[in-house]
Amino acid sequence: YRRQHTKETQLSKFNQTEIKAMLGSYTKVLFVRDPFHRLIASFLQGMGISPSFSSFVQEVLDSGTHNTSMAWKPLISLCRPCLIHYDYVVMFGFLRQELGHLLQRAGMPVDSLLPELTDTQVQWTYRWLSEQMFSELSVQQKKQLSHFYHWDLAAFPFSGSFLAD
């Protein structure tokens, strides 16, 4: 894109012609993660003031989609996949495989640039954490979370997500 570098990073700061030119000139990569895993990571990083996962989830649900942290805001509202045609969607948990493919397509050396990623261990750990933390939630909270992330679950293949049911 030919426009000089600017401090503005949000697309909404540009006009439609500039947005179309920018999006057409870049390779667009979207990294996505199961919304329930994002909630768990946020809780474990101490992003809420709650003593339990259940009360943290209730804080998230009470905040709604407008006043919520970007750490657990629905992906659909952050990345607009219906409006932006992403060239690649990289799923957390498959990073080594997908990043390797992406680097190869870009003509870059794969082995020298990829860090050691242990996707299988990450998937197993999050599966175990999900089971533990999901069991702490009430039936009402489970339903509300599924509704809160409904569009993320519809847009991306999070088939193993506890929220998918």
From TrEMBL:
One of its GO terms (cellular component) is Golgi membrane. It is found in: Golgi apparatus membrane. Its EC number is 2.8.2.-. It comes from Menura novaehollandiae. Belongs to the sulfotransferase 2 family. InterPro entries: Carb_sulfotrans_8-10 (IPR018011), Sulfotransferase (IPR005331). It is a single-pass type II membrane protein. The gene is Chst9_1. The keyword Transferase applies. Keywords: Carbohydrate metabolism, Glycoprotein, Golgi apparatus, Membrane, Signal-anchor, Transferase, Transmembrane, Transmembrane helix. This is Carbohydrate sulfotransferase. Its main location: Golgi. GO terms for molecular function: sulfotransferase activity. GO terms for biological process: carbohydrate biosynthetic process; dermatan sulfate proteoglycan metabolic process.
